Amino acid sequence: MAAAGALAPALRCSLGRHRALSRAAGRRGRWPFLAEGASLRPCSTRAALDGINKAVVDRIIRVDHAGEYGANRIYAGQMAVLGRSAAGPLIQQMWNQEKDHLRKFNELMIAYRVRPTVLLPFWNVAGFILGAGSSLLGKKGAMACTVAVEESISDHYNNQIRTLMEEDPEKYKELMQIIKQCRDDELEHHDIGLEHDAERFFILRSPWMSFVSVTVMITNLLQCLLCSASVIMRL
């Protein structure tokens, strides 16, 4: 009950700081498959963007950015409840990797001129509540949430890799490497959760996976509607 009582002020404090997380995510992370000192260069000309399937790339980067932002909020919620417990260092370790993912997708948003989803405010609140709420069940509840979310996201990344392979594996090589690295990290988090008794709350796995899948679907649908409305207004 004490943890539940602390949740409300923690949520208010976290909501006030979410912009700081986004700004911090703009700092460049280090990725093993990029040469030392290398970074993505913004596509500064129309010609640089003409060679790619912009619709596919936009959708992939936008959804992945939203997903990594949501993952950061989930771990922020878990740390708000369990940060001072024995599980705190483990959760922080996984959160640090998610911060690195978000930094990389922030770079991709700039490089490919992709606008973020309008659902970021929703992810900000829903992610934190999901992380904090699962943590109120204790460490095993938090790990069960991690397993469900990471499994769903890993499947999503695999689908994106298949899509890019069908498009042109050479043209999208760097983007695919980034997605593969993120997927491997998510699978590592998934396995860590299983190693810490996540199966004890297996009954919650399907609802949490459904939440992530439905949210991704809504993100894509809403973005399509906004794009269609924008085209209609130009006619």
From TrEMBL:
<feature type="binding site">
    <location>
        <position position="101"/>
    </location>
    <ligand>
        <name>Fe cation 1</name>
    </ligand>
</feature>
<comment type="pathway">
    <text>Cofactor biosynthesis; ubiquinone biosynthesis.</text>
</comment>
<feature type="binding site">
    <location>
        <position position="186"/>
    </location>
    <ligand>
        <name>Fe cation 2</name>
    </ligand>
</feature>
<keyword id="KW-0408">Iron</keyword>
<feature type="binding site">
    <location>
        <position position="186"/>
    </location>
    <ligand>
        <name>Fe cation 1</name>
    </ligand>
</feature>
<feature type="binding site">
    <location>
        <position position="150"/>
    </location>
    <ligand>
        <name>Fe cation 2</name>
    </ligand>
</feature>
<keyword id="KW-0479">Metal-binding</keyword>
<keyword id="KW-1133">Transmembrane helix</keyword>
<comment type="function">
    <text>Catalyzes the hydroxylation of 2-polyprenyl-3-methyl-6-methoxy-1,4-benzoquinol (DMQH2) during ubiquinone biosynthesis. Has also a structural role in the COQ enzyme complex, stabilizing other COQ polypeptides. Involved in lifespan determination in a ubiquinone-independent manner.</text>
</comment>
<dbReference type="GO" id="GO:0110142">
    <property type="term" value="C:ubiquinone biosynthesis complex"/>
</dbReference>
<keyword id="KW-0812">Transmembrane</keyword>
<dbReference type="GO" id="GO:0031314">
    <property type="term" value="C:extrinsic component of mitochondrial inner membrane"/>
</dbReference>
<feature type="transmembrane region" description="Helical">
    <location>
        <begin position="208"/>
        <end position="232"/>
    </location>
</feature>
<dbReference type="InterPro" id="IPR011566">
    <property type="entry name" value="Ubq_synth_Coq7"/>
</dbReference>
<dbReference type="GO" id="GO:0005743">
    <property type="term" value="C:mitochondrial inner membrane"/>
</dbReference>
<keyword id="KW-0999">Mitochondrion inner membrane</keyword>
<dbReference type="GO" id="GO:0046872">
    <property type="term" value="F:metal ion binding"/>
</dbReference>
<dbReference type="Pfam" id="PF03232">
    <property type="entry name" value="COQ7"/>
</dbReference>
<comment type="subunit">
    <text>Component of a multi-subunit COQ enzyme complex, composed of at least COQ3, COQ4, COQ5, COQ6, COQ7 and COQ9. Interacts with ADCK4 and COQ6. Interacts with COQ9.</text>
</comment>
<dbReference type="GO" id="GO:0008682">
    <property type="term" value="F:3-demethoxyubiquinol 3-hydroxylase activity"/>
</dbReference>
<dbReference type="GO" id="GO:0006744">
    <property type="term" value="P:ubiquinone biosynthetic process"/>
</dbReference>
<dbReference type="GO" id="GO:0010468">
    <property type="term" value="P:regulation of gene expression"/>
</dbReference>
<keyword id="KW-0472">Membrane</keyword>
<dbReference type="GO" id="GO:0005634">
    <property type="term" value="C:nucleus"/>
</dbReference>
<keyword id="KW-0496">Mitochondrion</keyword>
<protein>
    <recommendedName>
        <fullName>5-demethoxyubiquinone hydroxylase, mitochondrial</fullName>
        <ecNumber>1.14.99.60</ecNumber>
    </recommendedName>
</protein>
<dbReference type="GO" id="GO:0008340">
    <property type="term" value="P:determination of adult lifespan"/>
</dbReference>
<dbReference type="GO" id="GO:2000377">
    <property type="term" value="P:regulation of reactive oxygen species metabolic process"/>
</dbReference>
<keyword id="KW-0831">Ubiquinone biosynthesis</keyword>
<keyword id="KW-0503">Monooxygenase</keyword>
<dbReference type="InterPro" id="IPR009078">
    <property type="entry name" value="Ferritin-like_SF"/>
</dbReference>
<keyword id="KW-0560">Oxidoreductase</keyword>
<feature type="binding site">
    <location>
        <position position="189"/>
    </location>
    <ligand>
        <name>Fe cation 2</name>
    </ligand>
</feature>
<comment type="similarity">
    <text>Belongs to the COQ7 family.</text>
</comment>
<feature type="binding site">
    <location>
        <position position="68"/>
    </location>
    <ligand>
        <name>Fe cation 1</name>
    </ligand>
</feature>
<feature type="binding site">
    <location>
        <position position="98"/>
    </location>
    <ligand>
        <name>Fe cation 2</name>
    </ligand>
</feature>
<dbReference type="GO" id="GO:0160224">
    <property type="term" value="F:3-demethoxyubiquinone 3-hydroxylase (NADH) activity"/>
</dbReference>
<feature type="binding site">
    <location>
        <position position="98"/>
    </location>
    <ligand>
        <name>Fe cation 1</name>
    </ligand>
</feature>
